[in-house]
Amino acid sequence: MLKQRIITAIFLLLALIVATTQLSSFYFAILAALLVLVASWEWAGFIGLSQRISKIPYLLTLTAMIFGLFLLLGLSPGAEEIDYLRVAVILGLGLLFWLLSLVMLIGYPQNRQQWNDESKIACMGMFSLIPTWAGLVSLKYLLPSGYLVLALVVLVAAVDIGAYFVGVHFGSRKLAPNLSPKKSWEGVWGGMAACLLVGAGLSWSMHVYLFSLSVLQFVLLLAFTLLLTFLTVIGDLVESMLKRNQDIKDSGVLLPGHGGLLDRIDGLMAATPAFALLMMTVLN
User: Fold this and answer.
1) Phi/psi at 256 (nearest 5 deg)?
2) CB–CB of 229/159 below 8 Å?
3) If DSSP codes are grouped into helix, strand and coil, which group holds residue 78?
4) For 214, which DSSP code?
């Protein structure tokens, strides 16, 4: 299983680098849309839709929403910019959803009946997936080289890796025993430390090789890694909560050794709106 996970992770990393750096912004938006639609198919399982035919309406709904956003945001093969104000509104709604999700996590499992409804979980999927797509696309348009997209992925991965290794070796205080018994507060601090170190390196490389950052911008980027850590953890725990709610181990079987796509991007979904909003503020 470990060998399979490593092989899959290497393949995903190489595919991400190629797609992010080589595709134009418009075609990257199409690829991101396809991945979000795959994730929406898996999210339908969280809703309780187990039959393939029952998942199609939800998939079509997300497809129509993304198609509408292509028009609303001005995405086209020849467009060099998109409507960042409208993107900011979408990202703001996504960030608000993830912050409110913290309330659900704190009250779990006593509050389960308040959100355990097909329509509510379906809406949760929309507020998770659509801002993720909009955020990744805006990052690509802000910097067509793909640096910002890769930086976000690397930061989220740093949180996961740091949390895993510190949690395994030093974890003692349980973070959310009702949701994920293996996660610990020590793991959270380890993830934060790793994210801070990686964030410092990425910010410095951005300053040296891309464009100059002021001291304030540099400090702002480093301070943001603290928020990004907690958002990544929230995304992970929300997915764990929804899987427990349906009594399923993985969101899917798409990725050998890893489960489904949602199992790999849960933290990324929660971190993307805030990161994209920050980059839009810093770079615009």
Assistant:
1) -55, 130
2) yes
3) coil
4) -
Residue 113, class by beta-carbon neighbours within 10 Å (0-12 exposed, 13-18 middle, 19+ buried)?
exposed
CA distances from 80 to 26, 83, 142 (A): 9, 11, 9
Where are the domains positioned within the chain?
A: 2-283
Residue 203 structure tokens: 């910010």
Q: Which amino acid is at 104?
A: M
C-alpha–C-alpha distance, residues 66 and 180, integer Å: 32
How many beta carbons lie within 10 A of that of residue 177, not counting itself? 10
The per-residue DSSP string of 118-179 comes to HHHHHHHHHHHHHHHHHHHHHHHHHSTTSHHHHHHHHHHHHHHHHHHHHHHHH--SEEETTT
From first to last of its 284 residues, the chain has per-residue pLDDT tens of 567 777 777 888 899 999 999 999 999 999 999 999 999 999 999 999 988 899 999 999 999 999 999 999 999 998 889 999 999 999 999 999 999 999 999 998 899 889 999 999 999 999 999 999 999 999 999 999 999 999 999 999 999 999 988 988 888 899 988 888 888 999 999 999 999 999 999 989 988 888 788 888 888 888 888 899 999 999 999 999 999 999 888 888 777 666 789 988 999 999 999 999 999 988 76
**DSSP per-residue letters across 6-19:** HHHHHHHHHHHHHH
Antiparallel, parallel or unpaired: β 180-184 and 174-176? antiparallel
The span from the CA of 88 to the CA of 113, in Å, is: 32
Q: How many Å apart are CA 246 and CA 15, to the nearest integer?
A: 31
Of 55, 37, 52, the residue nearest 118 (C-alpha): 55
* Whether the model pTM is above 0.70: yes
What are the backbone dihedrals phi and psi of residue 259, each rounded to the nearest 5 degrees, phi first?
A: 95, -135
Report residue 168 as tokens.
Answer: 């395994």
Tell me the torsion sign for CA atoms 2, 3, 5, 6.
positive
